[in-house]
Amino acid sequence: MFQIEFDSPSDRVVGIDLGTTNSLVAWMNLGRPEVIEGEDGEKLVPSVVSLLPGGEIIAGNAARAALIDYPDRSIYSVKRLMGRGVADVQDELKLFPFRIAEGSESVIRVALGEKTFTPPEISAFILRQLKKNAEEALGGPVTKAVITVPAYFNDAQRQATRDAGRIAGLEVLRLVNEPTAAALAYGIDKRKEGIVAVYDLGGGTFDISILKLHDGIFEVLATNGDTHLGGDDIDNRLIRIALEDIQSEWQEDVSHSGEAVQTLRQDVIRAKEALSFAPTARIEFDWHGKQYRREIARELFENLIRDIVDRTLGPCRDCMKDAGVTPEQIDEVVLVGGSTRIPLVRSAVEVLFRARPHTELNPDEVVALGAAVQAGILAGTVENQLLLDVTPLSLGIEVYGGVVSKIIHRNSTIPASAGETFTTGVDGQTNVLIHVVQGERELAKDCRSLARFDLKGIEPMTAGFARIEVRFLIDANGILNVTARDARTGKEQSVEVKPSYGLTDEQVEAMIEASIDNAEADYRAAQLAGARVDADNILAATDKAKRNEAWRTLTDLERAAVDEAVKQLQTAYHAEDHNTIRKAIDTLNEATHKLAENMMNTAVNTALKGTRV
Amino acid sequence: MKNLQADYFEFLELPRNLTIDLKDLEKRFYTLSRQLHPDLYARKSAAERDYALEASAVLNDAYRALKDPISRALYLLKIEGFDIGEQGTKDVPQELLEEVFELNMALEEDGPESVQGRFVEMREAVDAELLHRFAAWDATHARDTLNEIRALLNRRRYITNLIDKTNVPDRV
């Protein structure tokens, strides 16, 4: 029997594109980034999660099928909810069938059937599916990953993504901005010097980044974007038009049926995708015996979506201004995201940057491929490539009158830091509260509240005498870390973090605990299934061998031992423990050793006889 | 190991000069990035990873501060012990206050377009003067020059505020 040697280096790192619509996992295969297929042979894993009526949670293609059967137990586009509060998502709720559970405040809870989950937990189900796909394809455990995020994601959205990774049992070595990852995928063996613009229009987010390439260094000069702009907006517009049509044709409003809207969404997406390649397409919607048909010409489609496409151009102009470059200075433009297949998007980009965009790599895969390259950089297998990214939003602290004092400006290369000294305003005051916000506006209330940091245990003294030095540090993931020390004593000052949105560390820990139980169950199930497949194979092989003439060359005792081992394995087969099955397989292997040898000899003898004739 | 308490000039191994060759600065930045960036320490110990994070933050902060001539001058004033407060009204010479007052009046009476050109010209004059002072500092490192630079930077900030007030969008 063969022994297959799996190489399973403990520092294998995969790259994951956790997308609004689809997710992918990739790795470095002999120096080249490669997307890993699922067992269904599909590279794209739909970012859909379903809680089946039996209690089983499924993600990916299986869940997409469940979306129509169980719309109330399924969720898609959860990325739109990552790191956001209930008040933030009111607009989304009009367009997406998210069922926000009662009592959600700074952390949203979404209902799937009778249970509720936070967005990081739902994303973790998608990540677990990707992890499983990678483990099956690579033949070993996968515990470390690079995960991509939209460049314009704020701190809370990044933290939520990292939390999702942790809940899924992945050590997230780095969060990488999606457009930068795409540049890595393109740049690995291309241009050495030059200015590159990456235009990334995905399902739910839009990013633009401008990079300077210098001998393996990818320096991001500026980034801009809109975390709520993407292909979903185009779908929603087509759905609204179709719903109006249906209402007037059928005299029936189907917009309240989750199932109808889900079906229509998929029909509309099919038409939208067809329009990228054909001059006309048809929306075909069948519902309870009724049919809705509508022909859409590309020209009409383009008129319908023109303002959505135009919304990407402002951020592009601002980004060029921040990067200090003119369109003429941009050497190459790279397109990322499924929505960049739309001809109108391509022509708008071409007009703006005055350069024909690159489309050699599949826009759905390029981000995952780049994440794999970054994974290779961290694992030490990709050398001489280095990514210098920036923070997309300015970091500020709220000062007197609710005004924001900016301490780290947007487009600063990360890691970046800033120091501020704080003091007390009242005699005997023992704590100082610092409100940290992200954004470009003048007033704190117009920016994104990030967290409140409470400097505690300050020695009571006269107002204005305390001197607490606070260091704000944005790490290479774009996530803020805050430390403080008493400038007089040099002692570390305790800081209590109250995040405005998202989970506390304790909550994430609890979710990891819960998921370890699940992960163990998953692992055991996979081991069991693997052992049963091996048992099937060896039982079939033994059965076949018994019909070979070599069977008769064995002694009675040897034959009895084989039969006994077969019987044992058949019994062990139904055990719930893979070790029991493995042991029985080993026994049978041992018992059939002589049989296999004799079969080999018989075959050789036959062959030798054959040559003599 | 880099001294993380060093000032930015020292960190980048540059003299405390205000005229800097940007190509050379960029080269230093790239070279040090290849030595200090956290990506290169992902498989190292927690202490080494912390060092990389801190050191690369200092490197990036230093590059950012020294790349732009105005922020470079402000940074030099700071490490030379000059107080560069947000407003700095105390140190603004009387004639500048009067000039700014007149310009503010003009801004209110004649509207932004009429005065913006004048403000921009004024700032260009300050910038030209600053370059002279920068060269003077580099030649002598005389403290008096820094006083002059500080006054010019104050003046420049006032003018920039006025340009911002005129608020004419300068899109690409």
Can you give a write-up of this model?
The complex is a heterodimer of chains A (613) and B (172). Chain A is of the alpha+beta class. Chain A is built from 15 helices and 26 strands. In chain A, helix 6 packs across helix 7, helix 12 packs parallel to helix 14 (578-591) and helix 13 packs antiparallel against helix 14 (578-591). In chain A, strands 20-19-22-23-26-25-24-21 form an eight-stranded antiparallel sheet, with no helix packed on it. In chain A, strands 1, 2, 3, 4, 10 and 11 form a six-stranded mixed sheet that branches. A five-stranded mixed sheet of chain A has the order 17-12-13-14-18, with helices on both faces. Chain A has four domains: 13-229 and 311-388, 2-Layer Sandwich (Nucleotidyltransferase, domain 5), CATH 3.30.420; 231-308, Actin, Chain A, domain 4 (Alpha-Beta Complex), CATH 3.90.640; 395-502, Sandwich (Substrate Binding Domain Of DNAk, Chain A, domain 1); 507-612, Substrate Binding Domain Of Dnak, Chain:A, Domain 2 (Up-down Bundle), CATH 1.20.1270. Chain B is built from seven helices and no strands. The model of chain B has no long low-confidence stretch (mean pLDDT 85). Classes of the chains: A alpha+beta (613), B mainly alpha (172). Chain A binds chain B through residues 11, 173-174, 214, 217, 317, 320-321, 326-327, 374, 377-380, 386-388, 412-418, 473, 475-476, and chain B through 30, 33-34, 37-40, 42-43, 53-54, 56-58, 60-61, 63-64, 171-172.
